[in-house]
Amino acid sequence: MLELRGVTKKFDDNTVLDNINLEVETGSIVSILGPSGCGKTTLLNVILGLTELTSGQIIYDGEDLTHVPMKKRGFNIVFQDFALFPNLNAYENIVYGLRNNPTASTPEEVRDLIDLLDLKKHLKKRIDELSGGQKQRVAIARTLVMKPRLLLLDEPLSALDGMIKESIKERIKTVARQFNLTTIIVTHDPEEALSLSDKVLILNGGHVSQYADPRTIVHAPSNTFIRDFILRQLQIKRDNIFRLFDGSAPQGSTLMASA
């Protein structure tokens, strides 16, 4: 379990995160959602260890990681722009981290992961020959071969659209379930958060506005900000969201864009 206790981050006199308390169950998918400037990326960086806390604690499986360097936390991140090496092909990108830690995954485990993410036919391609969805899957595979204790995803669907986006959603869910991998996703899109996650953390001005399962957020928003934010951002998509959580769509079904 990941626990955040009184997490606060200030940059000079600007409080970006204010007393964040959070528990994330092992193996669950949690999205961090909110408008631009609410502290989403800062919270992700604090968990990763890229940004130091002003005050508070980060606990993982009972271990205090607050002052543990990023490289020793055992967490890993897939960045929004994939950050793949253009001079290496897809396979070389996937196994790149094994150069310094060859025992992290066996060859069989690497092959199984490639099959899981349906990348076998793309392994010899240059990065510029891959589609956006293929690049995203390569980036996820490169992270997973290192067997992170916690997977962080920064806007993983923002560069994708249509069926590619839906496919990556399902891949993320499959990976989290199969590896019992705690997964935290930053997104600005309520539809993505509500359709992908077990729980959603909604931030507003560095504060937690609500932390609950998607059904509760849709049917029982804790304040007017959440209600207005969700409805305004979803626009024509909101009908699909409500159908999913009012029982008129099958449980666990994937939302499709209505446009």
UniProtKB/TrEMBL annotation:
It holds the Pfam family ABC_tran. One of its GO terms (biological process) is quaternary ammonium group transport. One of its GO terms (cellular component) is membrane. Gene3D superfamilies: P-loop containing nucleotide triphosphate hydrolases. Keywords: ATP-binding, Cell membrane, Ion transport, Iron, Iron transport, Membrane, Nucleotide-binding, Transport. One of its GO terms (molecular function) is ATP binding. Residues 2-230 form the ABC transporter domain. InterPro entries: AAA+_ATPase, ABC_SmlMolc_Importer, ABC_transporter-like_ATP-bd, ABC_transporter-like_CS, ABC_transpr_FbpC, P-loop_NTPase. This is ABC transporter ATP-binding protein.
